[in-house]
Design a protein that fits this description.
Elements: E1 3-6, H1 7-12, H2 14-24, E2 27-31, E3 34-39, H3 42-52, H4 63-69
Parallel strand pairs: 1-2
Antiparallel strand pairs: 2-3
């Protein structure tokens, strides 16, 4: 059973929230009435991470593919700046 906690209550009763996470399952923390965090036991998180792992042969799609298709920074020629408006002073 998932219990819902407000942020302040979760802070004040943190140890109790951990115990409930271990005994009852995930806990949800809300801010201004909206769920912002789900607390799960570490063992449960390991199971989720293992099931969500992407095989090495899988092709990225969507946003990941877009990021991989963006040209690298060294592909863009940068103009050479010949002068400075103000001299650079290093040190004291």
């Amino acid at each position: 059973m998932t219990t819902v906690w407000q942020v302040q209550e979760a802070k004040n009763r943190f140890s109790e929230m951990i115990e409930q996470t271990l005994s009852q399952g995930p806990q949800v923390i809300t801010r201004h009435g909206r769920a912002v965090v789900r607390v799960v036991a570490a063992a449960a998180g390991d199971d989720v991470a293992a099931s969500a792992a992407v095989p090495a042969t899988a092709q990225p799609d969507g946003f990941a593919q877009y990021l991989l298709s963006v040209p690298r920074a060294d592909d863009f020629p940068l103009p050479v700046r010949r002068s400075r408006k103000h001299p650079v002073q290093l040190g004291g």
